[in-house]
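pasting for ref
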Amino acid sequence: MTAIDESKVTIAPLDATCDIEAAKEIYLEAFPPAEQRPWKKIVSRCDGKLDLTGVYLNRHLVGMITTWKFDSFIYVEHFVVDPTLRGRGIGSAAINLLRRQCNPMPILLEAEPEHLSPQALSRIRFYQRLGFHIIDRSYVQPPYDTYLPPVHLWLMSTDASLSPAEASLLLHRIVYNVTQA
């Protein structure tokens, strides 16, 4: 595939109705149900705590990022690029833009363990190339709903010294609304 010109990629708040619908399609296709926050909660911004950002190529929506801001890090809950455009540098450009916007705050995200599939291995390596470090291999994402299972994921951060215990506690309490361990 032909790499894109990184300068043609932008990220911006996602507000236009047509872009929100396009983002929804990309999101629902990319994540398994156990890793999906209900779309209504995403577009409602979870009571103003979640930011919904569009990834644009030449002003055309090609992906999305959802983030939560904490005092010590920015948490990327979901990040996806249209599967037909992957491998062309759009994701790298978007994450680099996000890192610049968040600087000096580190970024934290969850990723499937590399041994689960070739795609998971590819994703881990993608984030490592962008400066992320695996900080916890035993993390468990609480279920988004009572009928869904918890999901074993790895925590990755742009700051290798970020406390996995503190991050996990904040994610569970604020993002997943879990008050007990």
